[in-house]
Each structure stands twice: as C-alpha cells, then as structure tokens.
Amino acid sequence: MQKDHSRMTTTTKDHAPVNHQADHQAKPRAERPHHDRREAHDQHDKNDQQAGRDGADVSAFAALGLSEPLLKALAHEGYTTPTPIQTKAMPHVLAGRDLFGCAQTGTGKTAAFALPLIERLMNDRRHAAPKHCRILVLAPTRELAGQIHDSFKAYGRHAHLKSAVIYGGVNQNPQASAVARGVDVLVATPGRLLDLIGQRLVEIKTVEYLVLDEADRMLDMGFIHDVRRIVGMLPRQRQTLFFSATLPAEVRDLAGTMLRDPLEVKTTPQATPAETVAQSVFHIPQKQKRSLLVHLLQTGGMGRVIVFTRTKRGANKLAQDLEKAGVRAAAIHGNKSQNQREKALADFKSPRPPVLIATDIAARGIDVDEVSHVVNFELPHEPETYVHRIGRTGRAGLTGEAVSFCDREEEDRLQAIERLLRRRIPVRNDLPADLPKVESSSSGRDSEERSGGGGRGRGRPGGQRRSSEGSARSGGARAGGARSSGGRSSGGRSGGARSGGGRRSGGSGGAGGDGQAAAGPAPAFREVSGGDGGPTTPRPAPTGGAAKVNRRYRRAL
C-alpha cells in the first residue's frame, strides 16, 4: 500500500509551522493513543481478509452450506475447491447424520468434518460447562491430534470458538487448565483422555459430537478397548463421525456398535494409493539397503523425504548412519519426547529439511503437503500400512514418488501388497556399482539350515531365517528330537535349525548347554548388539554350549 505524503510538512531550520497530522503519523507506534492502534489493527485485519477473499474464490464451499466466517477462513487458507470427500460428506454432517467415511490420506478428511461441525456450533451458540466439551475428536497419535487442533483453530479463526488438545508424553497440568473452563472443541488421544477423566479433570457426559479420525490406525495400535470405554461414557444422543483411510472388517464391526443409521461415504476403492504417487521397488539384500539409500539421497534429486522403518531402534540406527555419510537426518518415533518430535517435524517443514526417519505409528500424524519421496526401507507386515506410508506424498494435488527396498525375506510382504493393490509394482534395476558385496546365501551352513529342521521354511526365498524361526516356534521336538526342561530357552530353540547338522540329530546338546548356564551362578551381564544393528541392550552372558549356539545365532542374523 502506497502512503499519501501530500499533506505532510517537514520542519525547517527557520522553525516553519509543523503539520500535526504528519507529526502524529511520524510518532512511534508505542506513543500513539490506544484507540488509534486498535483502529489500525482492525483495518489491517480487514485488509488481510479482503485480500484473501479477492485472491481465492470460495463460492464452491458456499454452495455446500458454509457461512461467511468459515468462507473467510478458507479464503485466508487459500482453499478454492472442495475435495471429493468434502463434497460428499459436508452436506450430511450439516444435516446431523452419522457418517462412515473412507478416503485416502491427504484428501481433506479433517476439513470434511471440522468445517460442518464448526458451522453447527455457530448456529447453536452455547457455552460448554467447566471441564466439558461439545465436540470430542479422538486421534491415535500426538502429532495427528496436534494437527487436527491446528486445523480447527485455522478454520474457526472468525467463529470465536474455544478449543484444546490433550495427549500423553507431556505435563498434563497445562492441558487440564485449558479444559477447566469448558471448551467447544477437544482433540485427544485415548490414553491421556482416560487419565484426565479418571482424575475428574475432564468430563465427557455432555458431548454432542464425536469424531474418530484414522479409526483403522486406532485399532492397529490397540486402542480398541480405550475407545469402547470412552464411548460408553458418552450420551446416547450424539452425532458420531467415523473417518478412516481404509475400512477393514474390524473397523466396520466397531462402527456398527457406535453409529446410528450411518451414511457411508467412500471416494476411492478401499486401500488404493493415490494416483499421483509413482511406485517402484528395488530387490536388494538387507545389508546393501543403507548404501543404496545414501546413493539415492545424494544423487537421486530427492527433496523432502520420509524413510520408513519397522522398529524404533532401526530408525535411530539409520539416522546415525545417514549422518555419518554426510546426510542430515532426524528420527521420529514413540520413544522420542514430545519436544524432540516437535523439533523434528519443525525441521522437516523448513526450507532445508533433513531426511525424516519414521516408524509407522509416529508417521500417521505427519501432514506435510510437499513431501517429494517416501522410501520404504523395510516393507511393513500389514499391506494396508503400505498404503498409509505412501499416502504421505502426492498430497494436495501434487505428485510424489514411493520407493521400496525388498530383501528376499520380504518377498511375501511384497506379494501381499501387490495383491491388495491388484497390480504389480515396477521393479528398478539401476543399482549403483559400488554397493558393498554380500556373501552368497548358498554357503554350506545356510544350505544345511535350509535343507533340514523346521520344514516350514523350505523352498521360501530367504529360507535361512524362516527355517530356523519356524523350527524355534515349533518347539524342541521338531528342532532337536526331544524337548528338554529348558523348553524355549536359547539352547533348546537353536539346537536344530540354527546350529547345524550335529545339533539336529541330538537337540539335547543345545538344551544341555543352556541347562548348564541356568544351573550355574547368576550370570554376568554384557552388552550385545540388537538384531537390527540398533543400540546395545543388556543380556545375560551365556556359558558353555549356549554361548556357542548364541554366537552361531548372531552370525545367522
């Protein structure tokens, strides 16, 4: 905005009259009268709102039944066109129907329930009682709960609503204080919510609207019993909304007990990845994965990258390896403190983001639009999780790429994923020439393990570990002929498949060795490396036959 200087008069050395309007404009902000500052602030806010309205056409949202305060907020956020899930869900939520919604991650599920619920609150202005809330939103992770809360604040910026978010891992006192006077919207993770309810710091007996977001992940994480307890405390007369990226049978069963005459809204086939994500897979041994990842990060033109691992220790170890290779990286998982997780996410959203190494549980709350690549360093056990992972990229109309690393032992998981997708994932063969060499899996010990003991592993790709693990699970009778009193001890489990031919015919040797260790004095403790190369953990130092078996077991891993 260009200033008008036509009425301003400058002071001369001859002390010419000074224009008081110019003098008032030249005063520092702190010296101006309070009402003038307030007036300028209001005008600035109006200018911002008008600029937003001028820059974004929100008529499509107006047609869905949203009022002016919400349209202003959407224009400020730059939204112009509703997504399919928003178009289908909003009118029914506004009408008060229970909803069973399925849409891929990144398609606007949060706005699909937040916008119409805020509209309903504005049409029925009532203050929540102390410690109570009118809208309760349950989310599986801290990150997702925080982002849903941010969305409610952004969409309700002109609605004058009070909201709060509660989750574990941080001091509960500020959260309890935020709810003490009553809030319109409460976003919570199930565990912390039950803690505060048990301390009588939160009451949910008057909730009018219940939302379960990412309901499938809620079940995967074992929150089913917590969710049922929470629902049992709610009034029967309420509006309930289910939103999920997938609709497995367990989610349908849970929804059937909570929804009344629900309307089912699906915008894509179940568990189908977004069309904007290009997928590919490398078939590569586990020991070469780290080198390939470093090569792709340094030469593949990747921008904002999320790498998924199956374990927390694996995430930490991979982040350390990338740092040693000169690649900035940060790990995020359930063992990190809330401050560490928030810092990792803030760095990831910065203009120069590090590579984010994440586990599946923590990653469900990552809502960043410009993720260019997702790397599945290890394939997940559940094929639906693969869909959630690659849904972190290709969001908000952008394109993305998902690259997976598949070891021989992960072939079954890859096949399950392809069955779910109903198509083959293209294979990439452009491996760098300088990958570290890996010993051939056809060595004498490996062949012997695959050919005997624990027959479940025969003929499978990577049958070496599958065979031994199958033998261990089946007990000493299969592994070594007779199960000793040691039962599932390391010696008894390893006597057959993991130890070689001699132990296979006389499994009692392994068991006996372990028995000697158990019969002796209390074992000393020493540090041994985890199976995935992660941080060390204390374990008792075995002796005798068990020590030999454990050494062979670690070499097999």
Secondary-structure topology with pairs:
Layout: H1 20-26, H2 34-55, H3 59-62, H4 68-77, H5 84-94, E1 99-102, H6 109-122, E2 133-138, H7 142-155, E3 163-166, H8 173-180, E4 183-188, H9 190-198, E5 209-213, H10 215-220, H11 224-233, E6 239-244, H12 249-258, E7 263-266, E8 277-283, H13 289-299, E9 305-308, H14 312-324, E10 329-332, H15 338-348, E11 355-358, H16 360-363, E12 373-376, H17 383-390, E13 400-406, H18 411-421, E14 427-428, H19 444-451, H20 463-474, H21 476-480, H22 490-494, H23 501-505, H24 508-519, E15 525-528, E16 537-540, H25 544-556
Parallel strand pairs: 1-6, 1-7, 2-4, 2-5, 3-4, 5-6, 8-13, 8-14, 9-11, 9-12, 10-11, 12-13
Antiparallel strand pairs: 15-16
Can you give the helix content as a percent range? 40-55%
| Distance between the ends | 67 Å
Largest sheet: 7 strands, parallel
CATH architecture of the largest domain: 3-Layer(aba) Sandwich
Shape: globular
Number of helices: 25
* pLDDT averaged over residues: 74
Radius of gyration: 30 Å
CATH topology of the largest domain: Rossmann fold
Instruction: Give the uncertain stretches in residue-range form.
Output: 1-55, 441-541, 546-557
Task: Output the CATH class name of the largest domain.
Answer: Alpha Beta
- How would you name the CATH homologous superfamily of the largest domain? P-loop containing nucleotide triphosphate hydrolases
Instruction: Indicate how many domains the architecture comprises.
Output: 3
